[in-house]
Design goal:
- By secondary structure, the protein is mainly alpha-helical.
- The protein has one domain.
- Helix content is 63%, strand content 3%.
- It contains 23 helices and four strands.
- A two-stranded antiparallel sheet has the order 1-2.
- A hairpin with a 2-residue loop joins strand 1 and strand 2.
- Helix 3 runs antiparallel to helix 4, helix 6 packs antiparallel against helix 7 and helix 20 packs antiparallel against helix 21.
- The radius of gyration is 22 Å and the shape is globular.
- The chain starts with a helix and ends in a 10-residue tail after the last helix.
Length: 505
């Protein structure tokens, strides 16, 4: 207990330091976004975990904190976004009488709380986008198909329940809560607040070689996952996952958030925006996730393009290309070369990805229409079993093609690419709110980053939750009516409405 108290002291201090730094960075009229309710949730969440000592109690707390503490849908979304990046997945296999029932995680209970909260809170959007609704349910059906093939009827029911709670709540909540540019900006502001707290924890862990949130597993009586930061070292440094505890998942989160960050620039004081962006970049550095960096190099130019800065976007892509071309020039065996994966032990991951791509394409060619069940894929790819004694499908797009077939993969790819394209088209035509507010097209940059990053990682942790959330946040931009008259956009500071108590009254 004394050790848990010590860890909790460090965690609370770092979370509050990150939150206060974020509040300082905001313009005075927006500091009401970070009120007593936000501080209470940020402080109480780790305290319940480290001092409660019971995973079921913690699950119940997460459910209740989301379901019963909000008065409106946008406030519910803010609560959900604040808490989603604040803890590890905390996976637990639930059994009854020795019979396996289902696998649950912390964010599964957050999602369940969001469903109940949507029923209890007020607020409706004027319009929803039927194409996005169809896309969300198509993704749900696709993953049910992938995971429910060749299993018993009771297992099918379990798969349907798990996939429904994983895929649908973030989309439904975001698409039904965000009505306009102000709602989108407030929601993203809360997500950024959570990220600044997480980066404070990650940077402390990097400097002290102490991943604090790994101790949460022991405090709750759970087994530490095999991706522990204690054994994940690259370039002589431990890889930090912050509150998520998984460095790859944390890197993906920070990468797409950085690409969307220009959409909330109007919230920050003159020095506040670069300070927050710098903190997030340092947090991304602490993860040492190469896939996240590559994804950000693609997503940031997309963000510039969506804001009408085509020349800057082209320059960004050119700079990224030059950077990749210069990688072979790094001195072999140097710390930087190992960090970037051009030499040393970290280069083995590149070799593994190449082998996975080659063998995966073979699997796709054998069953191009219907794919193969994941169990069959694992059995047939035993030559790819690596250090953790698993076949690590570190390419989600390839995995979808292998498990669901080429037609399903085409649907998967079309959903993400068409959403980015539709948002970009509306931005260029100057339709409705999209012309006047970059935040409404910001989800396109986030989706672009996630799409690229998923080529370097699997659907571990909450990696599928983020694109579903971004898909929902794209709704107001795609349903905004065409503006009757085209007016010059007002200065950001002049058109930014002050929040009446914000999300956290």
């Amino acid at each position: 207990m004394l050790f848990n108290l010590k860890v909790l002291f460090y965690v609370e201090f770092l979370l509050m330091a990150g939150l206060l730094a974020y509040r300082w960075a905001l313009l005075p009229r927006f500091r009401g976004l970070i009120g007593g309710r936000t501080v209470a949730l940020a402080a109480l969440t780790p305290a319940v975990a480290f001092l409660g000592g019971n995973i079921y109690l913690f699950y119940a707390y997460l459910f209740c904190a989301v379901a019963f503490t909000s008065r409106s849908r946008i406030e519910l979304l803010g609560t959900y976004l604040l808490m989603l990046p604040m803890m590890p997945s905390l996976q637990l296999d639930v059994e009854a009488g020795g019979v396996f029932l289902l696998t649950v995680t912390s964010f599964l209970f957050l999602n369940a709380g969001a469903v109940v909260g949507m029923v209890l809170t007020r607020g409706r959007v004027r319009r929803t986008d039927p194409v996005l609704d169809l896309a969300a349910f198509a993704l749900f059906a696709m993953f049910v198909y992938i995971n429910a093939r060749g299993v018993s009827s009771t297992t099918v029911a379990r798969v349907v329940a798990q996939q429904a709670l994983t895929i649908l709540p973030p989309y439904l909540l975001a698409s039904r809560a965000v009505r306009d540019a102000d709602d989108a900006r407030r929601a993203l502001a809360m997500l950024t607040a959570a990220a600044t707290m997480g980066c404070a924890v990650a940077l402390f862990g990097l400097l002290r070689h102490w991943p604090l949130y790994e101790n949460m597993y022991a405090a709750l009586g759970l087994e530490l996952p095999s991706s522990s930061s204690y054994v994940a070292v690259r370039g002589g440094r431990m890889r930090m996952g912050g509150p998520l505890n998984d460095y790859t998942a944390f890197g993906l989160f920070l990468a797409f958030l950085l690409a969307m960050l220009p959409g909330v620039r109007g919230l920050f004081r003159h020095a506040g925006f670069p300070a927050v962006a710098g903190l997030l970049l340092l947090g991304l550095f602490a993860t040492q996730s190469r896939g996240a960096w590559v994804a950000l190099m693609i997503g940031w130019p997309v963000s510039l393009w969506l804001r009408g800065k085509g020349a800057a976007a082209g320059a960004g892509l050119a700079a990224a290309g030059l950077g990749f071309a210069a990688l072979p020039l790094l001195a072999p065996g140097s710390r930087l070369a190992e960090t970037l994966g051009t030499s040393g032990a970290s280069a083995d991951t590149g070799t593994y990805r190449q082998r996975l791509l080659s063998r995966g394409l073979d699997m796709v060619a054998e069953h191009p229409l219907a794919g193969q069940p994941p169990t069959s894929l694992v059995a047939r790819l035993q030559d790819l079993v690596q250090g953790q004694q698993i076949v690590d499908f570190v390419n989600t797009h390839l995995w979808v093609a292998m498990a669901a077939g080429v037609p399903a993969f085409a649907i998967w790819a079309a959903i993400w690419l068409s959403t980015v394209g539709r948002l970009g088209a509306r931005r260029r035509r100057g339709e409705g709110w999209v012309r006047r507010s970059g935040i409404l097209s910001a989800p396109a940059a986030g989706i672009a980053v996630v799409t690229v990053a998923l080529a370097f990682t699997s659907l571990i942790d909450r990696n599928l939750v983020w694109p579903m959330l971004l898909l929902g946040m794209a709704t107001p931009a795609l349903t905004a009516r065409r503006a009757r008259t085209v007016r010059a956009p007002a200065p950001e500071a002049a058109r930014e409405p002050a929040p009446a108590g914000g999300l956290v009254a």
